[in-house]
Every structure is written in C-alpha cells, then in structure tokens.
Amino acid sequence: MIVTIDGPAGAGKSSIARQVADRLAFEFLDTGAMYRAVTLGCLRAGIDFDDVDALEQFAGCLELRWDDQRIFLNGEDVSEEIRQPEVSAAIGRIADLLPLRTRLSEMQRQVAEGKDIVTEGRDQGAEVFPDAECKVFLTASPQTRARRRQLQLSETGVNLSIDEILDAQNRRDLEDTTRDVGRLRAADDAIVVNTDCLSSDEVLQAVLEIIHGVLESRTSKTAS
User: Fold this and answer.
1) For residues 84 and 36, is the Cβ–Cβ distance under 8 A?
2) Is beta strand 76-77 parallel, antiparallel or unpaired with respect to 70-73?
C-alpha cells in the first residue's frame, strides 16, 4: 500500500511520515532528498542555474538511487551533504524544471512499486501517486508553523523572530501554491488533518488511525 503525506512547509509532514513508516514497518521515501541530490550534482559541476537547457541535460545524466533511507548520487552516499545551506537555496531552481520533475516522479513510482511505503512531499497524492490508497494532507496555520520553525532553529543555535520566519514562510507558500508544476495542493480524495491544536504524538496517532481505517476497509472488501 502507498501512503502519501503532503502539506506545506512547517506542517510536520517529514517527521510524521518517518514515524508512520517506522510504526507500520513500511518503507519510507524522502522525495525531497532526490531533488536535493540533483541540485548538489549541478552545484558540484558548476552548472549555471540560469541555463535551463544545460541544467536539464546535465541532470538527465545523473545516476540516483534511493536505498534504505539513503540517497546515492553517482554511487556516492550524499545523504548528509544534500542538507547544506547552498543546496537548500538552489533547490527551487531544479524542482521547477518540468522534464526533471517528470523523470524524478517516474523514479519515485519505480521505488514504490509493489511495496508498502510512506512517501511525503507537496504533490505526492495529487500528481505522483494519484491512485494511492491512502492520502493524507497535513496543514496548520502560518503562525503555528512559524512558531514550530522558530523552535527548531533555536535548538540549532539560530535565533530568528516570528516576523522574519513568517515573511520567508509566506513567500515559500506563495511560490509552492502557484508553481506551474508540482503545485502544493491536497488531492481531491485526501484526508486533511489540521495540526494546530495537536501535539506531534497526537498527529501521529491521527494519521495512523486514518491508515488503519483504510487497511481495515481493504480487508473487508477482500473478505467479501
């Protein structure tokens, strides 16, 4: 069974998706890691990010492999390196390229084929896995997401005001919801979970209950 968990930045989808996969003994697919790996490859090669043709041609020659929650670029494990700030700053330039997004979406489908897997992103249920049996869309108010982000940053020694975080977050939300490809949105058949008043444990429990409900429904249909 494929479980998709989508949502805006700061909604907690990444951590929840990993926990759900662990609880259910499902595999986990971090789609963002794939885009980050391609971005890292382009940065290493010194590709001009304004040269769309060069980006698409170079990215198309890269070898990516997702294995046991690790991402490999041309055979090298780059799971830590893809988290560098320069990769984060440039990833949007890669993620908006239609040919590349089409290729990576197909790779994600290949990884998930025939598996029990949890995958997270912003367009997994709506575009990459439209036939997934279980689709969840996590959301929260901008203020709640900003407070969570502020706490995460403070734990790493970075101190920003709520206004600074909100400003950056609102810009990203606007970009994500108006993209030509891979636009952030809930699939028509997704179950939306608002996490404003929920702890992380409560969000996890809510998502697990949704998945168990789908599994029970499938079992009932099979039995009948």
Assistant:
1) no
2) antiparallel
Does the pTM of the predicted model rise above 0.85?
yes
Residue ranges in 30-161 assigned as alpha helix (H): 31-45, 52-60, 85-95, 98-112, 142-155
Distance, first Cα to last Cα, the chain: 19
Question: What does the pLDDT average to over 41-63?
Answer: 89
Q: How far apart, in whole angstroms, are the C-alpha atoms of residue 28 and residue 50?
A: 33
Sign of CA dihedral 94, 96, 102, 108: positive
Q: How far is CA 120 from CA 58, 60, 143, 216, in A?
A: 26, 23, 22, 22
Q: Which residues are 87's β-sheet partners?
A: none
The predicted-structure confidence for 84-100, as pLDDT tens digits, reads as follows 888 988 888 888 888 88
Answer whether 8's CB lies under 8 Å from 122's CB: yes
Report the distance separating Cα 15 and Cα 51, nearest Å: 34
Average pLDDT over residues 147-169: 87
Are 1 and 214 within 8 A, CB to CB?
yes
Task: Report the alpha-carbon distance of residue 86 to residue 84 in Å, rounded.
Answer: 6
DSSP 216: H
Interatomic CA distance for residues 129 and 142, integer angstroms: 27
